[in-house]
Amino acid sequence: MTLQLGWFSTGRDEAARNLLMEIWKRKNIGQLDVEIPFVFSNREPGEGPGTKEGPEREMFYKLVNDLGIDLITLSHLKVEPVLRKMGLAETDDFATPSHALLEWRNAYGERVIEAIKAAGHSPEVCILAGYMLIWSPTECQTWDAINLHPALPWGPTGTWQEVIWKIMALDETEQGVMMHLVTPELDRGPPVAYCRFPLTGEGWDKLWAEDKERGTSWIMMNQGESNPLFRKIRAEGERRELPLIAHTVGELAEGRLEIRDKWPYMSGHKVERGADLSEIVEIELLGDGEG
User: Fold this and answer.
1) Within 13 Å, how many C-alpha atoms sit on residue 33's CB side?
2) Distances (CA, A) of 82 to 85, 89, 94, 103, 197
3) Domain range list for the chain
4) pLDDT surpassing 60 at residue 85
5) How would residue 291 be classed by pLDDT, with cut points 50, 70 and 90?
6) How far apart are the two ends of the chain, measured CA to CA in Å?
7) Is residue 175 pLDDT above 60, yes or no?
8) What is the spatial distance between Cα 230 and Cα 211, in angstroms, rounded to a whole number?
9) How far is it between the farthest Cα atoms of the chain?
């Protein structure tokens, strides 16, 4: 039975378009038994025309319309703006929201649910693909959703930049990418699937040796993200993101991977650290001539 996939994206950059197109192409050639009945965005057409993200969003919305997908938008800036402003002012860390910010998240989440249901949609699984809001407890209770995090299930939390700096500081020997269940706690949901790759061997050892002489703190201050080791870790993670997302969706569509009571199961067995899809991801990269 075809998997009904809800798609959530703020549509702020080219990566948002590429990800949607990748899943759409695989669907059209029969690799994925899925439908994407709608795309939801937390910004609206015409918002922020003078900003860098404004034109990017318009291109994303045009793509959605060209593909014949139902575009549903609701600007988070227009829902309870006073409560949102209060909540943001009282919150130091988005992962631990103030009472007012949590109240606003639930208020906005309820409006999102209403809008999607009013359009006649009932997704089986949702994907947060460059969606720049943290889901509310209300949304998490209503639907199952998965999100990309640029680390292994047992790896660091934080933004992709923070993850890489932690990897370098700890002299880790492997890195990876995972899909995890969305919960109200930022990047803390149970891992659904992941892939891993080594940070040692040919092309790696020389970079590590150079950086160990200087130390991560010096590199952050003097080279930043232009550091060769930093850039290589990021590049190797990025090239695995699309295949991991696609194969995770594929496993869900085929029924081998399931979400039961807010926890992932693979072939009927509960998985604590998610399904390891490293082999199939690496095979795809080799097939593309990138391995």
Assistant:
1) 9
2) 5, 11, 17, 12, 46
3) 1-143, 149-291
4) yes
5) very low
6) 34
7) yes
8) 10
9) 60
